[in-house]
Write the structure tokens for this entry.
Amino acid sequence: MLKSLAAVPLLASPAFGKVKGAKKLKVIKPKRLTAGDTVAVIAPASGLSPESFDKALQNLESLGLKPKVGKAARGIKGFLSATDKERLDDLHQAFADSTVSAVWCVRGGYGAARLLPAIDYNLIRKNPKILIGYSDITSLHLAISQTTGLVTFHGPVAASELSDYTKNHVTNVLMNPSAPYKIELSEFNKASESNLFKTETITAGKARGRLIGGNLSLLSALAGTPYALNNMKGRILFIEDVGEQPYRIDRMLTQLRQSLDLRALAGIALGIFEDCNPRTKDTQTLSDVVKDRLGDLGIPVIYGLSFGHIRDQFTIPVGIEAELDTERATLTLLETGVI
């Protein structure tokens, strides 16, 4: 552990035991965003170049929001943006600041999971706000949503390319919510010639349940920790990843199979696993792996919905009721993620 974090108290494990063993956790929905709201911009994982950071702020301003940059958010410290304590302080300050309406992670990368034992979950529970990001931010989504009940949002980081599709869905979910809200495939993604953008039904059917999930590498890395996926019964698990070879995808899905009862899920929605084709022709494809690891669960499973490390991605509220339809390749939000 870094010396700078030595004085930060770890959250006592009994608190996690209560949450993990609980059958139900009260769902807390944050307030919706409106034009002119202030949003905290933090870098709880890796950092960005000054030019990319400036572009990220411009993205938020294009949504009519006023970015407020965390003290350590512009830093770069190797593969992290700053020390654990500095990144943790920015997270805590963002939730404690009464002038801030949402907490927007500027990028993923690596490092957010290092903060989990020291997060003040009571502070977050008492000051519910929108938290949005994806990739490495998955660790924050899991820990915060499963510990506090707060609905968080797997969606574009501030540095993402805000295509019309991405912008439309993030504003519809965070600023102009409605329910039911049907999310269909991006036409841009459907037009891609890459096999990784092709939608494929692994097991047909409809599934209804609360959404949980995120980046596969993080879901796998958190297995066996107090922050791992839990209470899977009746949930819809959503998964995405990028730049992983099929054998590594196989290993991570196998880890989830062996650490969780995936058959208890209502269904599984996989996004687009960009850059996950095998490097040699004499091996299994991503499709082979997904069918082998998820095709025997007896629940609806579909690959290729429009989320992941891609240009056009929709925003997923973690913790709300939704319906997955493999025949139509849609995910319908049955309730809003904000109030």
Remarks:
- The first strand starts at residue 38 and ends at 42.
- Residues 1-22 have pLDDT under 50 and may be disordered.
